[in-house]
Amino acid sequence: MPSIEQGLYQLGQLDRLAYQDTAVHRLDPRAKVLTTLVFLVCVVSFGKYDVLPLLPFVLFPLVIASRGDLPIGFLMRKVLIVAPFAVVIGMFNPILDRTVVGQLGGLAITGGWVSFASILLRFSLTTIAALALIGTTSFTGVCMAIEKLGAPDVFATQMLLLYRYIFVLGEEGMRMTRARALRSFDGRGMGPRVYGQMMGSLLLRTYARAQRIYLAMLCRGFDGHVRVRARLRFTGRDAAFVLGWSAAFVLLRLYNVPLLVGQIVTGVPS
Q1: Domain ranges within the chain, ordered by starting residue
Q2: Of 24, 55, 161, 264, most Cβ neighbours within 10 A?
Q3: pTM metric for this prediction
Q4: What is the C-alpha to C-alpha distance for residues 235 and 243, in angstroms, rounded to an integer?
Q5: φ and ψ at 42, to 5 degrees?
Q6: Interval 50-89: pLDDT, tens
């Protein structure tokens, strides 16, 4: 399977997981979006040398994924695909920050390695939480929720259309790639010049198709607002979900739980 087609299939698979029927899926999308936002704010607010205090936050995406019947391996593979971005961001920290902040046996641990580990951990937590949100809500549900929470209509509509037509653009690119391969013999027509021409052709075809799609939407009464048939109902269970998890996140942010547990187990006073 071509890499573009495989990538589109896996992206669509995450959205298909959102149409399961579990307790997490039945929660109001606004409740899941609000809870995830609190989670993200708490995670990214930690200092650059904080690693251990972040570990208890792993519980939230794991619980959501397990209760929502999301395959953990599938989510972790998606995290690994985008992990190089986090590596690039923090890869120079061990070189620039050589201050020794601890000892592990006879090995000195510098602040650069600690901050690098903190970046990777925060990146992994926020990414897997976002994937779990989409996997239990769907991208359409997320857009609908942020619109109901007060985001501008145009912002939610642009996000929804962008996500929807990623697949259209990918399919157009696959057709062009397949046509080029069928017309190539003995490796001819495979150079950078041909790829540049293909990108220009894809841009023009995308622009023309976007015009046709927009005119078709206008003919069907589109007025800048995407309407869906689903109606949201915020129940007491949704409120308990938001308040319970949010309170847990705030407590984990204010108190270093792993340190407190270590002090209790070892009997060392704070």
Answers
A1: 20-137
A2: 24
A3: 0.82
A4: 13
A5: -65, -40
A6: 889 999 999 999 999 999 999 888 888 888 888 888 888 8
